[in-house]
Amino acid sequence: MAYVWDFFAVARNADILLAGLGQTLLLSVCGIAVGVAVGGLLAAMRLSGRRTLSWPALAFTEFYRNTPPLVHFFWFFYGLPMAFGLTLPPFAAALAALGIQSAAFFAEVFRGGILSVERGQWEAGRALGMGRARLMRRIILPQAARRMAAPFVERSFELVKTTTLAAALAFHETIYSAMVIVTQTYRPLEVYTVVAGLFFVVLFSASQLAEWLEARGRRAGAR
Amino acid sequence: MTRADDVVLQVEDLHKSFGSTEVLKGIDLSVRRGERIAILGSSGSGKSTLLRCLNVLEMPTRGRLILDGEAVGRPAAGGATRYREAELNRLRARVGMVFQQFNLFPHMTALENVMEGPLSVLGRPKAEARATAQRHLDRVGLGGKADAHPARLSGGQQQRVAIARALAMDPEVLLFDEPTSSLDPELVGEVLGVINDLSEDGRTMLLVTHELGFAYHFATRILFLHEGRILEDGPPEQVLKSPREERTRRFLDRFTAFRF
Question: Domain B7-256: what homologous superfamily?
Answer without folding.
Answer: P-loop containing nucleotide triphosphate hydrolases (3.40.50.300)
